[in-house]
Design goal:
Length: 636
């Protein structure tokens, strides 16, 4: 009590122990700034208590001040200092001395505690700052991140996992909200467990791994990086992942496009080889025909036969070139339809007449079944005839000699349904969807194409689509023939449409016209001049723009066929200068050019041309122009 009273002014918490055992028990519960230890006590003396205090880690460095009332303080003092005492006080004690000595240790303890608290506070602040930086990074990354706790069954196998942490990007990538604290199967009962084995291997081996996984429940693909959190035995897995679905889809599209480009390149190469072959084929008979005409000038029958042969070959070449031009126009969206009200029956008759020679040459039998009533269309008759003719030619080429070809038309739901069937080589099921592709050809039984450029059916599909219709192909299989069906919209009122249908132009012979042909290709100009002379017209020939203008000033002209590409000036310039001449105001100016797009036609129209013909100009088109010019001249 005396010691407590002496130290009361220090403002400390004093704990009283009446024995060594009580002192040691108190030292186990808390730390002390100093211990005032009496040497003589019942049971354990002060030295034994000091030894025990020094043997414990918690109190090893606690200051011990011995107090004693013994007769031989020197011996006790030596023992005390040997046990690590910091001071030895003999009774009776002076309160000022006791207070001063104990106060030193109290202040030292308080300083240490304050330093310890400051260090703890600094540590906690640093830890909080690190936590904030970690959390900011955790939430700012674009990749999804989560910490998983693997949940095992009694057999030790992973049966599920629980989300311990997840960032905001987790929801963005997976669409799952508030996953923390929930298991994968709670969030999705149909969850696929493909990743369980991977996560189990990661925590068992401690080796991080990266893999790509499809999550079928949400139809997405993820690139996943998984690593163990903690040491061996930990079942925590840190997972960083990114949604790569769009990337995989883009890669698939890229592979598909590469395959399509490679296939298109192969088809282009095959097409160029076929084109060279098809264009070379007519050259041999034409060359032979020229020799025959020179050698058989006195044999009219042979000359006529040779002429017919050469005419067929030229028509074949013109047909090939026309197909190529049509492909270019349709591909660029510049094809021009000359629509009018026509009867589909008349168009079919024209197409059958066009294809008759090819069908007869192969020994096929053609059955035509067309309704008796008119089939009015708002269409370009030339293009629809081209569609039907291409289908008939296709059937003739792919049908073995002596086959049957059927052309049937029926009316169905306001549409004309035209089908062309054959008994030919048929189409394999895997080739049905490809027959309308550009440059595609169905091989024969020998594995070889049947000739042509492989663009006929593609043209058919494009031309039918331009008329608001559709075309489809069907076949039971290879060697079992095929059927192509075209659907075209009919005009709603049959009687009204029939009354508005154009009639075929008359065959009256026009009167004589003064016609100027301007072309730097001598053979082309001379041959057209000969045709004009045969038709009874007066033909004049010029090979340059200057010659053409000189002839236009020297005499009146009714029609001028003017090439656009001249050596001294363009046909556009010649046409503009001709229109400045008073005598050329009513002259029919016809442009002759190899270009026939809508832009080309606009340019010729702006230059003063009345009509636009693409080379080689077909004789029926030339005759139609001449008839129109003759009629205009007679009524003037």
């Amino acid at each position: 009590m005396a010691l407590e009273a002496a130290l009361h002014s220090l403002g400390v918490n004093m704990v009283r122990a009446m024995s060594g055992e009580q002192a040691l028990a108190a030292l186990l519960k808390q730390d002390f700034a100093a211990v005032l230890l009496d040497v003589r006590m019942p049971g354990m003396d002060g030295f034994e208590v000091a030894r025990e205090i020094r043997s414990r880690a918690r109190s090893r460095f606690t200051p011990i001040l011995f107090v004693t009332a013994g007769d031989d303080p020197d011996e006790a003092m030596l023992s005390a200092y040997a046990l690590g005492a910091v001071d030895f006080l003999a009774k009776p004690l002076r309160s000022e001395v006791l207070k001063a000595k104990v106060g030193v240790f109290v202040e030292l303890y308080r300083s240490k505690e304050e330093l310890r608290l400051r260090e703890r506070r600094d540590f906690e602040q640093r830890l909080e700052a690190k936590e904030e930086r970690y959390r900011a990074l955790f939430e700012s990354i674009d990749e999804g991140f989560c910490v998983l706790k693997l949940l095992r069954g009694p057999d030790g196998q992973v049966r599920d996992f629980r989300y311990e942490e997840a960032n905001e990007a987790f929801t963005m990538h997976t669409g799952v909200r508030d996953p923390v604290g929930k298991t994968a199967r709670e969030l999705s009962p149909a969850f696929q467990n493909e990743g369980f084995a991977v996560f189990d291997r990661v925590v068992r081996t401690g080796e991080a791994t990266r893999f790509v996984q499809e999550q079928k429940t949400i139809n997405r693909w993820f690139d996943i990086y998984a690593s163990r959190l903690g040491g061996p035995g930990s079942d925590l897995v840190a997972v960083l992942f990114a949604d790569i679905t769009q990337r995989l889809l883009a890669e698939q599209d890229m592979r598909r496009l590469n395959e399509e480009l490679a296939q298109a390149n192969r088809r282009k190469t095959e097409f160029l080889a076929t084109l060279a072959h098809e264009l070379r084929n007519p050259l041999a008979p034409l060359s032979n025909g020229l020799h025959l005409m020179r050698m058989a000038s006195t044999k009219p029958e042979l000359l006529e036969k040779t002429r017919q042969m050469m005419e067929r070959q030229i028509q074949h070449m013109v047909h090939l070139v026309d197909d190529l031009l049509d492909v270019a126009r349709i591909s660029t969206g510049k094809v021009e339809l000359r629509r009018r009200h026509v009867d589909l029956r008349e168009v079919i008759a024209t197409a059958v007449e066009t294809s008759a020679s090819l069908i007869e040459a192969a020994g096929h039998k053609l059955d035509v079944d067309v309704p008796q009533q008119p089939l009015p269309l708002d269409a370009d008759p030339t293009r629809i005839a081209q569609v039907v003719s291409n289908l008939l030619n296709n059937a003739a080429k792919y049908t073995p000699e002596g086959g049957r070809i059927g052309l049937k038309v029926r009316v169905e739901a306001g549409q004309a349904v035209l089908s062309v069937s054959d008994t030919g080589i048929g189409i394999a099921p895997d080739a049905i969807d490809k027959v309308f592709e550009m440059f595609a050809q169905v091989p024969s039984s020998a594995g070889k194409p049947q000739g042509g450029l492989g663009i006929g059916l593609s043209l058919v599909q494009s031309l039918v689509a331009l008329h608001g219709g559709s075309v489809s192909a069907a076949s039971p299989g290879s060697g079992q023939g095929s059927t192509f069906t075209v659907r075209l919209p009919l005009l709603p009122s049959t009687s009204e449409a029939s009354s508005r249908m154009d009639t075929s132009p008359g065959s009256s012979h026009p009167g004589q016209l003064q016609v100027l042909v301007v072309d730097d290709n001598t053979d082309a100009a001379e041959s057209l001049g000969v045709l004009l002379d045969i038709e009874g017209h007066a033909a004049h020939i010029a090979h340059t723009g200057a010659e053409a203008l000189q002839l236009a000033q020297s005499q009146p002209l009714d029609v001028v066929f003017l090439d656009i590409g001249l050596p001294d000036m363009t046909g556009y310039d010649v046409a503009r200068r001709m229109r400045l001449l008073p005598s050329m105001q009513k002259t029919l100016l016809v442009a002759l050019t190899g270009w026939g797009t809508q832009d080309d036609r606009e340019r010729t129209r702006e230059a003063g041309f009345d009509r636009h013909l693409t080379k080689p100009a077909e004789l029926p088109a030339v005759e139609e122009l001449l008839r129109a010019a003759a009629q205009a001249k007679s009524t003037a």
